[in-house]
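Obj: model holo form, ligand = zinc ion.
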Amino acid sequence: MSDVLDDTRSKTLDPDLKDLIETNDRSKKGYIFCIACEHVIGHVNDRVDIMGAHEHSMTNPYGVTHTFGCYSEAPGVDLFGEPTAADTWFPGFSWRLACCEGCGQHMGWMFERNNESFCGLIVSQIRAG
Ligand SMILES: [Zn+2]
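Output (holo structure tokens):
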């Protein structure tokens, strides 16, 4: 009886719990989360400089200024619409809307030129883990 209990505990409690704790710690380190729903958007290691800076403040034709950081990829976003070069902030780059996969919140834009691309994530919409 006690052998069975011990066996069960070592198989289900300890390894699982240990694994869960370690996985959570590891998986959250350096990740970027949607501030609205905590969905993982990307990773700080993917930060890139575009036109000499990681962070940019740009004003759209409606007079709204967005401050965003540039990332080589952002696997946690969904892209919407066809790429357009209209009113682009980065010469030669077309853009599409990038929204959180988890909650649909507007996170920024995917900028694309030939085989190059990067994602601009609005700093007020994300937090680093
Ligand atoms: Zn979200």
